[in-house]
Amino acid sequence: MNLFCVGLSHHTANVETRERFGGHAETDCVLRNAGCTEALLLATCNRVEVYGASEKRVSTDEITRCLMRESENTSAVGDLRYSEVPPFYRYEGAKCVQHLFRVASGVDSMVVGETEVLGQTKKAYEKARASGAAGPYLHRMFQRAFRVAKQVRTHTEITRGSVSVGSVAVDLAQRIFGHLSNCKVLVLGAGETSERTARALVSRGVSDLRVSNRSIDRAHDLARLVGGDAIPFEEWPEQCREIDILITSTSSETPLLTPENLAPMLRDRIDRPLFIIDIAVPRDVAPAVNELDGVYLYDIDSLQSVAEQSLALRRQQIAAAEAIIAEHVADFVDSISRGLNRASQPSEHPFVGDSSLRTSEL
Amino acid sequence: MDRTLLIISTVCFLAAVVHSVIELRAGVFRPMRFNFFAVGLGFIFQTAFLSIRGHSVGRCPLTNLFEVFIFLAWSVALIYMLVGPAYRLSLMGAFTAPLVLLIQGFALIAPIDIRHPAKVPANPWLEFHASISTVAYGAFALACIAGVMYLVQERQLKTHQLHSIFYHLPPLTDLFAAITRLLWWGFVLYTFGIVSGFFTGQPLPRVQVVAAIAVWLLYAAILQGQHLRRIAPKRVAALCIVGFSAALTLLWGITFAAQMSSMP
User: Fold this and answer.
1) Does B27 touch chain A (CB under 8 A)?
2) Do A119 and A78 have their domain in common?
3) Is B160 touching A (CB cutoff 8 A)?
4) What φ, ψ does residue B198 adopt, rounded to 5°?
5) A173 and A288 fall within a common domain
């Protein structure tokens, strides 16, 4: 029995190509037309992959044809010819197992350590299992992949930190205040980014949210959307005595908040930190404000920098994740091998041996 | 036998430190289980040592500088185990273990374990005074550690340079709440310690009393400033480090003076 994976991903194909293949094929097609014993289709925005088990070797061309045949039925890819098909990669045996473990763990993802792919893999597996396309071989391999993903998440820092500007802001707020349910938030400027950040904070438990904007009507609109209260623009400086988090994104050409006008307001709240998220360009808050005791100022560049640090931290963890994966791949291969030795009919068991460990990329 | 227990205990704390350093260097920092287990095991051996030593000297084992240091290290470990899990300060173990290792290692290496024949019979007030004061120092030590953690966290937030350890530190406000509680515990215990000193029935050396009251006043000022919102949390954290350094110096001075006076 051969275990294999054929597919394309963000590593090998651009988004235009990926969207031509994503979601068109069905596992039934692979089972019926390519001659696989078991098959599973994993289609996400970053990859389209077919995992299969077969008695005889199924060529990559067969799998590609299956994916194409479905593709050709849609108008978007109607003009795609076989000769134009981008290089599909193919992994067999242990390499296939390793690839699946890397995919499920988020090591192979575009944003290293993202966990969404695990959910998508589980869904794909459930779908294949329910339709009967996934049998004992894929079952064992995917169940182990879910275990590996969990272990990688628990024993490495690969999912640590936030990698988008919005989530970094919310994450930092939680690092400063812990639970956000008692935090008072002022949104200054009713722009789209403010709205997104405010919504993210509300989703983490913030209930006291105030919105201030030069146009009071827009302030009311945003306040209604995020479940807050509108404050007249001339009253916002006074709010700095009470609030814990300030999100500012006005179109002011000069800084609205400077150390000179903020310092007197901080005297009454010396024991409470003030977290300022300045997403305006040009900036609404003078950088020197960050020098004040208890004030933590993050502008768009520093939020981006934190996101990049998190991503770098995650990348550093790839080696640790690969070590866990390698251990599981060896163990999985070994367990299959032991099963083979016990069995009377070797053909009932998946690959073992060097010959099956080859990888080819077309 | 008792020193062997202490060496084993020190190895446990050393293991916690080495584990933390290795994980920090690898960029993977998960101090929870291992550190708590290592500190807990070290604490058990410390307790066994103090118990054997207590039976041996026939009183609370605070008869020389060596025993005072071990009792202090034991108090730090005890309060960490009481406070750490309750306030989600598991990372404190990574900061506690080096401090305990330093105190205990120094006590083991330095030639300070000098047995003195007891000049006076065991005095319950004196023992209460010495032990409660040492436990208070333990609370101040933990406040000092929480202060270091606060400053580390604060610095990273200010400079926008977030390292792996940042994601394991408790939120700033939680850390400050823990510092405040530890300061109050230490302050109350220390007050009991000072007051009980007046009931020992022994002549009180003026310099030591003045120094003890100066440390008490320093902590009272920190708490008062914090309570009246006159001192920013960052300064409270820094003052915790200053306060503990002063308290440790005083403890050293008192014990050293006591040893000198007991020498024939």
Assistant:
1) yes
2) yes
3) yes
4) -75, -10
5) yes
Task: Report the C-alpha gap between A26 and A31 in whole angstroms.
Answer: 9
Closest partner residue to B233 (CB to CB) among A271, A298, A316 is: A271
Size of the A and B interface in Cβ pairs below 8 Å: 69
Give me A221's structure tokens: 């609109």
Strands A274-278 and A295-299: parallel
Confidence of residue A59 (pLDDT cuts 50, 70, 90): confident
From the list A5, A29, A45, A183, the catalytic residue is: A45
Q: How far apart are CA A204 and CA A202, in angstroms?
A: 5
- At A245-300, the pLDDT tens digits run 999 989 888 899 999 999 988 887 888 999 999 988 889 999 999 999 999 999 98
Q: Is residue B117 part of a domain?
A: no
B222: left (phi over 0), alpha (psi -120 to 50) or beta: alpha
Q: How far is B50 from chain A (nearest CA, A)?
A: 37
- Is A14 an interface residue toward B (CB < 8 Å)? no
CA distance, residue B177 to nearest chain A CA (Å)? 11
A240 catalytic per annotation = no
Q: What CATH number is associated with residue A17?
A: 3.30.460.30
A4, pLDDT greater than 70: yes
Residue of A nearest to B150 (CA): A176
Chain B residues whose CB is inside 8 A of the A306 CB are: 160, 162
Parts of chain B with a pLDDT under 50: none
Would you call A293 and B226 a contact, using CB atoms and an 8 Å cutoff?
A: no
pLDDT higher than 60, residue A37: yes
Question: Which domain CATH number covers A305?
Answer: 3.40.50.720
Gap between the Cα atoms of A278 and A188, Å rounded: 9
Q: Are residues A114 and A256 in the same domain?
A: no
Q: State the smallest CA–CA distance between residue A227 and chain B in angstroms.
A: 26
Q: Do A176 and A297 share a structural domain? A: yes
Buried b (16+ CB within 10 A) or exposed e, B122-147: ebeebbbbbbbbbbbbbbbbbbbbbb
Q: What percent of chain A has pLDDT over 70?
A: 84
Contact criterion met (CB below 8 Å) for A325 and B180: no
